[in-house]
Structures are given as structure tokens and as C-alpha cells.
């Protein structure tokens, strides 16, 4: 049985590289398999809401150095991220939309581009309308909690301003595109086929 794992020879490699029909057929077949998986087990829908975050650096640190401003941004950004994923907000979403907190934190929600400008709040679900509801609700609750925190002097800098700018008629798309399935299927099938031909060949 040692032939199963025997290393490929130079002739084997040359033969494989010359087998252009194999590569074309394998790529097409792999892409078809990937496309079939996409339609049989489709990717979830993903919606995106946006909250504009303005740290007002000019007012918060008018006479300080860039380094101090950098630490200010880093510190306040971490605070805002903690609020976005806080138990309070997760439980509010969970009770209002009947989604377990564990599911919300386990990939159903995603926060992107936390910086000075638009924060994107993503939500994934098999139902596109459900994805829209989750994303919009998360953005609105985040905006509300941040404003309450600032108004009650609970740790955030008072110069920070937040505004939910995109929560209506949110764009919804598949979390993974068809082209990704086609490309992955083609590459994976060709890789496995090449490995099988080169390493699992019977001796002549």
C-alpha cells in the first residue's frame, strides 16, 4: 500500500500540467457543484444600518497633540464598542425580536468600521426582512444608549455625537455571493483532483 502515498515524479507533474482538458473540465464541474450548493443551501441575507459617530476632536482637544488625540479616539472608540455589545443592548434586542443573545453574539450581528464617521451595523438572517429589523433595531438602540450615557455623564466624553443615518429601507444582500461559491468550488475540486492523481496513483 506504499504506492498510495508515494511522492509524484517529475513525469507525473509534467503530465498533469499538459492535461488542459482535465483542468477545464474540473473547473467547470467544481463551479457547477459550488453553484448547486449555493441554491440548495443558500447563504443568509445580510442588512446594514449606519450610525454616524462624531468625536468632535477640535472641541474635545483643541490644544493638544496628535498623540493625545489618537489616545482619546482609541479610548472612546473602545467604550462605544463595549456599549454596542453590552448585555443591556443584547437583551433589549433579544426580548424585542425574540432572538437568543447567544445567537446574536455568535455571528448574527457584526460591527464594522468603528472610527470617526459611519459605523456599520450588520445583521444576518434567512429572512431578509428579519435581517433589516435586526440591523435597524441595533443601530437605534445603540444611538439611544450612547445619548443616555452622555446625558447622564456615565463615562463617555460629552463632545461625542451620534446619529442613526441609515435605518429605513436598508439594503439587503446575500452574505456570500454566487461568484464566491463558483470560484471556491472550482478551486477546491481542482485541488482535490490534482492531489488524488499525484499522490493516490497505482504503480504501473
For the structure shown, list the relevant keywords:
5 strands, about 200 residues, five-stranded antiparallel β-sheet, 8 helices, alpha+beta
What is the topology?
Elements: H1 10-18, H2 20-40, E1 45-54, H3 57-60, H4 66-84, H5 87-97, H6 101-108, E2 109-112, E3 117-125, H7 128-151, E4 161-166, E5 172-174, H8 178-199
Antiparallel strand pairs: 1-3, 1-4, 1-5, 2-3
Helix pairs in contact: 2-8, 5-7
Could you give a short account of the major beta sheet?
5 strands, antiparallel
Query: Count the strands?
Result: 5
General shape: elongated
Determine the structural class based on helices, strands and strand pairing. alpha+beta
Rg over alpha carbons: 26 Å
Q: Note the run of SSEs as H and E.
A: HHEHHHHEEHEEH
Structure overview:
By secondary structure, the protein is of the alpha+beta class. It has 8 helices and 5 strands. Strands 1, 2, 3, 4 and 5 form a 5-stranded antiparallel beta sheet that branches. The chain is elongated and about 75 Å long.
Summarize, please:
This protein is an alpha+beta fold and 204 residues long. Helices cover 58% and strands 16% of the residues.
